[in-house]
Amino acid sequence: MVLRQIELQNFRLHKNTSLNFSDKLNLIVGGNGQGKTSILEAIYYLCTTKNLNLANESDVILFGEQYFDAKGIFSDLTENQTRIFFDIIKNKKNFFLDEKPIFNSSSIIGKFPIVTLIQSDHAITQGAPSERRRFIDSVISQASHTYLEMLLEFNKTLRQRSSLLLQIKESKNINLFSQLEAWTETLITTGTEIIKHRIRFVKEFNLYLHEAYNHIIESAEEPLIVYDSLAEDEEENAAERFREELASMREDELRRGINLVGPHRDDFIFSINGLELKRFGSQGQHKTFQIALRFGQFFLMEEKLGKTPIFLMDDVFGELDTYRAGKISEYLSLIGQAFITMTDLTKTEGLKINAENKLIKVSNGTAAYA
Amino acid sequence: MLIAEPLQKAIDELSKLPSIGNKTAQRLALHILKSESQTVDALVKSLIELKEKIRFCEVCFNIATEEKCEICTSPKRNRSLMCVVEDASDVIAIEKTNEYNGLYHVLGGVLNPLAGVMIDSLKIRELLLRLQGNDVKEIILALNPNSEGDATSVYLMNTLKNLNIKVSRIARGLPIGGDLEFADSATIGRAFIGRISIQ
Hints:
The complex is a heterodimer. In chain A, α6 crosses α7 (238-256). Helices cover 44% and strands 24% of the residues of chain A. Chain A has helices at residues 36-48, 57-60, 122-126, 129-143, 145-171, 177-216, 238-256, 277-280, 283-305, 322-332, and strands at residues 2-11, 14-20, 25-29, 67-75, 79-87, 92-97, 100-102, 114-117, 223-228, 267-272, 275-276, 310-314, 338-342, 358-363, 366-369. In chain A, a hairpin with a 4-residue loop joins β5 (79-87) and β6 (92-97). Chain B is an alpha/beta fold.
C-alpha cells in the first residue's frame, strides 16, 4: 500500500499544503518547528484516526482557526480516500473512509497499516515495563482483532476486581469473598488467553527481530526478547500457575486492595548476547534495538496482513553514525514507502537519494519539492 | 424560533425515550398531531395500561400481568429446566427461538462492583429459595458474554455446585445462518478458542 497524496488545511503550521509522494523514500527536511513532524502526524491520523503523540485534537488546529481538515489518497488494489476533520466548537473528530463516516476506529485497524519510529521509542527499551507491554500489545492487536477484544475485556475485569478488592478492604465484609472468587476465575480465564498469545507472539517475533538487527549492524550480536510472565513460557500450565500465584498473593491483595497478579504486571526482557539491555546496553545498542523492533514489526505486519505498511521515521537519522545511517538507508530501500524527517541534509551522506525518491523542504508551514 | 408549547412539551417527553433523538421526537410528535383522535387515544391508553397492568412475576421476575407470569403458570412448560437471564428482554429473545420450553429466572442485572451492583442487588437469594423443594434438574446460565456476565456465571456455578443440579452455560460462538466469512474476526477468534471436542 502507498500513500499517493495528502491535503492539509489549518493543520498545525500548515494553512494549505498539498503534497504528492514517492512510492519509495520521502525525505522531509527543514529546521526545528517548521512543520516537518506535522506531516507525519497527519499521515498517522489518516491511517489510524489517532494522534501520533497522543496530543489533543484542539492543539493540532492552526492558531486562531476553527477546524483542521486532512485528506489522503491511498492506493493498493483499489484507491481509497481517508479524511479527518475536527471542529473546535463541536469538539468532535470526524473520520471518513471514501466519504463514509467511520464511527469505530477499530473497524479500520489493519486497513492502512503503518509503522512508526519516533523519539519516544527510547522508552520501549529504557522505560518501565508498561512501555514494553504497550509495544507488544499494540503489535499483536494490529494483527489480531481477537487479541484486542480480549485485552479490553481483561482490563475491564481488572477494574471490576480492584473495585471489589477495595470494597472488601474498606468494609471488611467477608461475605464478599464468594464474589471475589468469581471475579478471580474470570480474571484467570481471560488473563491466561492473553499470556498464551504473548508467549506465541514472542517466539515468532524473535525471528523477525534477529533478522532486522543483523541488517542494521553486521556483527555477532544476538538480540532476544524473553517474556517474563508468571507462566514462564509454558502455555500448558499457564492457568494453573496463575491460580497458584493468586492464591499466594491473596493476603497482599486484600490488604492493599489492588490486583497484584496477572499479565498486566508482566515484563519483556530485551537482551543482547544474553546481557540485559536495560542494565548493560550502550546508548548505541539501545538505539539499534529500538530500530530493529520497528523493522521487525514492519516485516511481521507485512506477512500477517498481506499488505505493505507505510514506514514513518521522525528525526532518527540525526542521531546515527554514518555507518548505521548507511545500513538503515539500504534497509529502507527494501521496504516500500517511507517518510523520513531530518533537520540537516548533510546527515544524509549514507542515504541514497535518487530519482525515485522525493525531497520535500518545509519552512514555516509551507512545503516545496526540492 | 418559537414552537407551540404543547408541541415542544411532547417533543421533549418523546426524546427522553431510548434511541430517540431530538429530530425523531419532532417527527413523531408532528405525526401524532396529524393522526386521528382515536388513534392517539388508543396509543395513550395502551401506554397507561402497560404501566398499570404489567408487573413483575413474583416467582421468576419476568414481565407478568398477574402475580405469576404466563410461563410460570403454564402446564406445558418443562419444570425440570431453568434458564437464568439478566433481563426480561432476554426472556423475549429466548422465547422467540421456540427452542426452549423450560422455566426462567430473571436476575435483574449482573455483578458490577464498579457500579455498586453486588449479590444482594440481584435476585440470587430468590433463585436459591426457589430451588428448594423444586423439580429443577438442570440450570442453564444464559448471561451476556462479557466480563460482568462471565463473573456472574462463575459465581452462580460456585453457589449452585452443592445443590446436586446440573449447571450448564450457553456457548460463545458464531451466529447461525450467517456464513463464517461474514462474522467479525473477534467472534471467530473467540469461537476458535472456545472450540469443543466432538469425539
